[in-house]
């Protein structure tokens, strides 16, 4: 297990290093110098040069790359070109919206998908199964931002149960914050729940065909006992991987959903930064998203190997 | 012919036909504004109603189908054109450093969701439909590379490949003449799934302004425009949304049907 962990850890660092290189140099080829953009076309060359020096744009590229990576490792993401505030603070503030939203959606999608998938698998081929599978087929076809608009139309505009957008802030209390995140979380969770329910069902069906399930029934367990004690537990392993993958997609998906609900999260920060050419913010947010994908996958891999020792020998 | 394939095929071809027809005929000019007739609910002669500029929604949906289908189709093409050769190469040289490099690079690309790729590209080159194609195309590459490699690996163990090697064929020729034809069915099925995912991704990107730009009509942009008017003109949001759902549903059903039709033993990852 130690050998496996070290090997995976090495590849984790390698991936992060290559990803940061790719992100930095893709952004660096962007036409347009942030300093001349900020000062407008009539700026004097020496003013531009002074601002370039102030923003640290006058040192060689590789030097800036090393500063950027070194800074991030120390928790310093640089200073925003437009707001002149530390990028880490801006991201930190927005993360308090995006991260709870993604976790909320992940919880909802798991709560919906597990019972639905288990129910469908235990009634394979019967009307209940067909109904669940039909619903999931529809669920994966619905764009989450469109579903969000429909939720706003029904629950905010017509029924007034929730507000149509905006974020109450955590200062207004946990309940107020959760309430403004509820519709966004439901709309994010729906397509993910559909996928997860399908995975849960097919994984459980694979297990139900195993010999040990027959043994469990033969030794006198009821169908229900065998399903829960031996079926669901074993079926959870592949489902874990999908949940891990989903977390990163939820974080990325929240960027779109934030636009529907005017939530002050990472998504809005990125779009504002793109239009004001505040590239250091774009760079850092993208790196953060990619970092979260790679790290979550690493954790899932480790958890997987911990549960299933057969995986440690393969890599 | 199974039911999924029939139903899915019919639904998808409906939208493909609408897109093709829009090149020669639409009920109205999709860009023609008619302010007095703005925000009309669905009724004759505007079967899907009109938007806030009085443009005919039916015509806009037809032209928008062009954008959605073209972006998703080319993105699948990019994914296959690059991913399949990579997968074949990795499988032919299983365990070599080349295999390792290809698979690690795949993992790396996989860590960039298509939305993040689109954000990067837009930050550099500005927004446009081309960005959406590139972003979704790049996202598709590792999907095809992985599926090709794993299918090819099991084929390399088979006796007919051994026979081809004994006959003196090079691994490149074996890959092209024996492996590729045997993974085609799998690629068609996965291609259908990536096509439907591409349509969803394109809609999302255009919705947040990273995809097709005005005046090019696209379903995602129509939804973005509809957002502030959804309370008094819900048809503006309902109709493009239903167009997306039906297209994606049709393609997914077709994918399921094709899988059962081409090879019932095939099991393609749906996630």
UniProtKB/TrEMBL annotation, chain A:
Q: Name one Pfam family in it.
A: BPD_transp_1
Q: Tell me which domain of life the UniProt entry assigns to the organism this sequence originates from.
A: Bacteria
Bilayer-spanning residue ranges = 101-121, 142-161, 181-200, 235-257, 285-307
Xref: PROSITE patterns: ABC_TM1 (PS50928)
- Describe the family membership recorded for this protein in Swiss-Prot or TrEMBL: Belongs to the binding-protein-dependent transport system permease family.
What is this protein's record name?
A: ABC transporter permease
- What species was this sequence derived from? Sedimentitalea arenosa
Record localization: Cell membrane
Any one GO CC term of the record: plasma membrane
> Which stretches make up the ABC transmembrane type-1 domain?
95-300
Enumerate the CDD domains for this protein: TM_PBP2
| Xref: InterPro entries | BPD_transp_1_N, MetI-like, MetI-like_sf
What are the protein's UniProt keywords? Cell membrane, Membrane, Transmembrane, Transmembrane helix, Transport
Q: Does Ribonucleoprotein appear among the keywords? A: no
Please name the GO terms that the record assigns under molecular function: dipeptide transmembrane transporter activity
Is Transmembrane among the key words of this record? yes
Q: How does it sit in the membrane?
A: Multi-pass membrane protein
UniProtKB/TrEMBL annotation, chain B:
Highest taxon, organism lineage: Bacteria
A Pfam family cross-referenced in the UniProt record is: BPD_transp_1
Under InterPro entries, the record lists: BP-dependent_transpt_permease, MetI-like, MetI-like_sf
Q: Outline the extent of the ABC transmembrane type-1 domain.
A: 65-255
**Record field: transmembrane:** 67-88, 108-139, 232-255
In the bilayer, the protein is annotated as: Multi-pass membrane protein
Instruction: Indicate where this protein resides in the cell.
Output: Cell membrane
User: Which family does the record claim for this protein?
Assistant: Belongs to the binding-protein-dependent transport system permease family.
Which PANTHER family does the annotation name? Answer: OLIGOPEPTIDE TRANSPORT SYSTEM PERMEASE PROTEIN APPC, PEPTIDE ABC TRANSPORTER PERMEASE PROTEIN
UniProt protein name: ABC transporter permease
